[in-house]
């Protein structure tokens, strides 16, 4: 599986040597029944990135090959010395590309073996706002609907997402269902998904919250609220109504008219699935916007089979990291403030209770801020590429140059170039474990190929480092993934994310099982719903409606920076693109409306110009495209230099960054180089 749809795949290893030879969809897999997308097949069979095949240790300005014993010895010595001064001097960043077992082990080491507050994952960069909104509304993370609900819906409302590009298998189900119903798309850019829509709403970048509030206000004023459902199953309705703005004022802020707001409101009159993605989440108002979308479903009674709020997850195992890794909660979604949970974690891990941090930490952007304040001396990244994937990437690169940096990955990335030690890890097709897709299905991941001698699995690398820091924290490598999963199962028993009834044996028989699954025969369906009755794991047992206010985008345009930059996914790229791009030095494309491009013809040199923000300047190929609104520029979030432009402001509730809106301008290109970047030291290459 490459993304969070969780496609079941048959993989075949090569006859000689190592590697994956052929991949196809598994028709018996209950999540996708044999469907698979071209990108997922291609990235598994023949990824374009540069593989890491041996440990590397920096000598002067150059990364040089080293033995595992040497590399692990350097890492352990630095980490032990750092922890001895203060566990919070070491930060750890995980990834939604890890298996559940590796993610759990990394969290066990970070929280229990080290005791650092500064442990997080790149899933916070994409899903934290939706997660926070789910907790606030329902008392638990993860969408209530499942894939089974897609054919049952009559209206499909896609807001700030482009599943045609990002989740093509899931999008096929949406299109099939919408053929007998309706597809409504809300997006600043007329995306591939919007091109198929019955109704397309072009919202102003960064104003999703205000548009959602306008829709709610319209539903209230036209008496289309399901008061029977609201009164029986929710709290906070009157406060919500009192907080709503006038429809016309909110519509104007969002760049639409009242008639357009009415079109969206009308979508909720029939059973509606409301999908949203990074366009909503990656904003300083991301959590509030997600809360308002959930409010729309609750207020109209669009809950239950064939309807409801369905956030679209990006990375293959974002859900598993959230459930298993002790990133934002202890396994099973148990809060860090739960004293019983803390005691059980300390006992299970056999570590002092006092070592467990009291806070989940400030998120990845906050960790970079702490580095810049001199509070963190060492950083360990696992299966993530913050130098390309985080906002204000030049600042991230400079920060990582100021610490002892360990990079654990399967492919060479921009972050590798700043590392002091590189630990080469196995990838899909080479490792064993489990993952969870966006509808809560747990699936097995099996190895069909050996790895080269100097590459190890994430789980074995984490255990090797962990046992040097805290003797006996893990089995001696090679670690049995099934034993680790059994530990996860036990820790989730009785929780809202109960996986205790899911075993490797059961997965071998059934291939995938949705949680909650408290015994060996049960499987989760639509959440919080049982034969017409509702029960939510909140203090009152009822869903919670939220209020919010809109205070504008964090970086408005002005006379100096008059254009808006927004970012998105290309159909053929994923994550930071290390598996898909042939070259790291190519020039990114910037899509711009022809009318806007015409205003800057004097700044073009053979189709190239420079996009500048207050943080960086990047040379681009300008691509006129009338699907982009006037006054805006769209760029590929996967390109390694695009996030040099983006803004590091975060949502105050979720710590998720504002990737989707910042102010930029065009300027005359420097034809002597393809990319204009601040000079960065400490970026040697392997001899």
TrEMBL record:
PANTHER family: NADPH-FE(3+) OXIDOREDUCTASE SUBUNIT ALPHA, RESPIRATORY NITRATE REDUCTASE. It comes from Haloarcula saliterrae. Residues 668-687 have a biased composition (Polar residues). Residues 52-467 form the Molybdopterin oxidoreductase domain. InterPro entries: Asp_de-COase-like_dom_sf, MoPterin_dinucl-bd_dom, Mopterin_OxRdtase, Nitr_red_NasA, Prok_molybdopt-oxidoreductase. This is Molybdopterin-dependent oxidoreductase. Residues 666-687 are annotated as: Disordered. It holds the Pfam family Molybdopterin. Signal peptide: none annotated.
